[in-house]
Amino acid sequence: MKAIVQIRSLLYKDFLLETRQQHTLYGILLYIASTIFVIYLTLPEPDAETWNTLFWVMQLFICINAVAKSFLQEAKGRMLYYYSLTSPSNFILAKLVYNFILMLVMSAVTLLFYSLFMGNPSTAVWQFAGIGLLGSVGLGLTFTMLAAIASKAMQQASLMAILGFPLIIPQLLLLIRLSKTAFAEVFKAGAPTQLVLLLIGLDILIILLAVILYPFLWKD
Amino acid sequence: MRLSWWKWIAMILVGYAVIGGLLLPVPELTQLGETIRNLYYHVCMWFSMMILYTLSIIHSIKYLNNANVLHDNKAKSYAGIGTFMGILGYATGAIWASFTWADPNNPAFASFGSIMREPKLIGAAIALLIYGAYFILRNSILDEDQRARVSAVYNIFAYAMLFPSIWIIPRLLPSLHPGQEGNPALNFNDIDSRMRMIFYPAVIGWTLLGVWIGQLNIRLNIINEKKGQYEK
Question: What is the ipTM score, two decimals?
Answer without folding.
Answer: 0.87
